[in-house]
Amino acid sequence: MIRVNGVEDPFANESVDALLARRGIEPRGVAVALDGEVVPRSAWKNTLIPDRSVVEIVTAAAGG
């Protein structure tokens, strides 16, 4: 089991970009942190999410 934005999610032994795709999240304007560390976009394909990880997905929003 992993936690994504505070909600439990099944562990799928997948990369960051696979998690985003599975959740239907367009990667433009998105930042991802894995266990409190920001994962550079260039590393998303090669960064596997270990079981019991905490993932935060943040999307930029326009406004003020």
- Strand count: 5
State the helix count.
1
* N-end to C-end Cα span: 36 Å
Number of domains: 1
Q: Which structural class should the secondary elements be placed in?
A: mainly beta
Order of helices and strands: EEHEEE
Main beta-sheet strand count, sense and barrel state: 5 strands, mixed
CATH class: Alpha Beta
Low-pLDDT runs: none
CATH fold assignment: Ubiquitin-like (UB roll)
CATH superfamily: Beta-grasp domain
- The average pLDDT score comes to 94
Please bin the fraction of helical residues: 10-25%
CATH architecture: Roll
Task: Kindly describe this structure.
With 64 residues, this protein is mainly beta. It has one domain (2-59): Beta-grasp domain (Ubiquitin-like (UB roll), Roll), CATH 3.10.20.30. It is 11% helix and 30% strand. The chain is built from one helix and five strands; from the N terminus they run ββαβββ. It has one helix spanning 16-22; strands at 2-4, 7-9, 30-34, 37-38, 54-59. A five-stranded mixed β-sheet has the order 2-1-5-3-4, with no helix packed on it. A hairpin with a 2-residue loop joins strand 1 and strand 2 (7-9). The chain is globular and about 35 Å long. The protein starts with a strand and ends in a 5-residue tail after the last strand. The model has no long low-confidence stretch (mean pLDDT 94).
